[in-house]
Amino acid sequence: MRVVAAMSGGVDSAVAAARAVEAGHDVTGIHLALSRNPASYRSGARGCCTIEDANDARRAADVIGIPFYVWDLSDRFHEDVVEDFMDEYAAGRTPNPCLRCNEKIKFAAVLDRALSLGFDAVATGHYARLETGPASRGGLVEMHRAVDHGKDQSYVLGVLTQDQLAHSLFPLGGSTKAEVRREAAARGLLVADKPDSHDICFVADGDNAGWLREKLGDRAPNHGGDIVDDATGEVLGQHEGTVGFTIGQRRGLRIGRPAPDGKPRFVLDISPVTGTVTVGPRERLAVDRITGRAPRWCGAEPGLLEGPQVTVQLRAHGAELPARVAVDGGTVEIELLEPAFGIAPGQAAVVYDGSRVVGSATIAAAVAAR
């Protein structure tokens, strides 16, 4: 196959490209230029979109012996990922920009361009496994969790459709991170010991709240408001804008004094319209009913999913929770069989059947456990 290898400049994508070559594919390496001003994005080990990363990717391609190009998708990235991130926070929701990048950029814009240029698939360094499913499920391409559960990235890939999976390669899904680093060193790749990237690539200093306040400016729904106690309605303090908060947040509330019982307070609710942030005890964060919208299925749309292997993951590094999932067109109703805490609208709920990723939905509402 003719394969485009998306090379971020890190060790994972470099080894994935090398393995694609070793598997006999005709591979071309590409690096995505996602920033209109690369110097404004994170640098060093904290990022994945810098000039330094582009140079690392180019050097890795040279060692592997494949052609290498840079594709400028900065306008598309800004519109579909950065603007979406700002709009969601302004509406009081908590988005996952990495998941949105996979949906809109890496497996939509990149794959569309690759196919139009005559390539057959896109290979990435994500930790997930692709298998051909049984005839009872239509023999479709199925995505499963990676062997290395500590590095598994199937959650942020839960937005991929069957057509996208059919044109994707994840060469690292059967390996551990330690094995990948050893292989990179053996291949002479200088990125073998490069630290993993973390957090949000387009927030240069890691201060999400400060970045949002600066970028939104007059578009922000408010410029401050009250922090209110859920039980008493007492105003405990003020804040500089609701974009600085997310459901379940504990740190950075700056309300000056502890609760009467001495226990910490958590953000329970955010109202961008009134500027009110409501706080209270952790137990008030418990939810067991979730409504999802805009579902995306990796294969056929399911109707009802229940049984011992059905689980839902609600955060990129969160635990799997046993669940019952009912799908009715554009709405997904999730009944958690044990409560979850700090679930915010805007996050993704990814549904699993054992290790298989069924699909995902964006959380629209979460109801308190009874």
Automatic annotation (TrEMBL):
<feature type="binding site">
    <location>
        <position position="32"/>
    </location>
    <ligand>
        <name>ATP</name>
    </ligand>
</feature>
<dbReference type="InterPro" id="IPR023382">
    <property type="entry name" value="MnmA-like_central_sf"/>
</dbReference>
<dbReference type="InterPro" id="IPR004506">
    <property type="entry name" value="MnmA-like"/>
</dbReference>
<dbReference type="Pfam" id="PF20259">
    <property type="entry name" value="tRNA_Me_trans_M"/>
</dbReference>
<keyword id="KW-0694">RNA-binding</keyword>
<dbReference type="InterPro" id="IPR046885">
    <property type="entry name" value="MnmA-like_C"/>
</dbReference>
<feature type="site" description="Interaction with tRNA">
    <location>
        <position position="347"/>
    </location>
</feature>
<keyword id="KW-0820">tRNA-binding</keyword>
<feature type="binding site">
    <location>
        <position position="125"/>
    </location>
    <ligand>
        <name>ATP</name>
    </ligand>
</feature>
<feature type="binding site">
    <location>
        <begin position="6"/>
        <end position="13"/>
    </location>
    <ligand>
        <name>ATP</name>
    </ligand>
</feature>
<feature type="domain" description="tRNA-specific 2-thiouridylase MnmA-like C-terminal">
    <location>
        <begin position="288"/>
        <end position="363"/>
    </location>
</feature>
<dbReference type="Pfam" id="PF20258">
    <property type="entry name" value="tRNA_Me_trans_C"/>
</dbReference>
<feature type="region of interest" description="Interaction with tRNA">
    <location>
        <begin position="151"/>
        <end position="153"/>
    </location>
</feature>
<keyword id="KW-0547">Nucleotide-binding</keyword>
<feature type="domain" description="tRNA-specific 2-thiouridylase MnmA-like central">
    <location>
        <begin position="216"/>
        <end position="280"/>
    </location>
</feature>
<dbReference type="InterPro" id="IPR046884">
    <property type="entry name" value="MnmA-like_central"/>
</dbReference>
<protein>
    <recommendedName>
        <fullName>tRNA-specific 2-thiouridylase MnmA</fullName>
        <ecNumber>2.8.1.13</ecNumber>
    </recommendedName>
</protein>
<feature type="site" description="Interaction with tRNA">
    <location>
        <position position="126"/>
    </location>
</feature>
<feature type="active site" description="Cysteine persulfide intermediate">
    <location>
        <position position="201"/>
    </location>
</feature>
<dbReference type="Pfam" id="PF03054">
    <property type="entry name" value="tRNA_Me_trans"/>
</dbReference>
<keyword id="KW-0067">ATP-binding</keyword>
<dbReference type="InterPro" id="IPR014729">
    <property type="entry name" value="Rossmann-like_a/b/a_fold"/>
</dbReference>
<comment type="similarity">
    <text>Belongs to the MnmA/TRMU family.</text>
</comment>
<keyword id="KW-0963">Cytoplasm</keyword>
<comment type="function">
    <text>Catalyzes the 2-thiolation of uridine at the wobble position (U34) of tRNA, leading to the formation of s(2)U34.</text>
</comment>
<keyword id="KW-0819">tRNA processing</keyword>
<keyword id="KW-0808">Transferase</keyword>
<keyword id="KW-1015">Disulfide bond</keyword>
<feature type="active site" description="Nucleophile">
    <location>
        <position position="101"/>
    </location>
</feature>
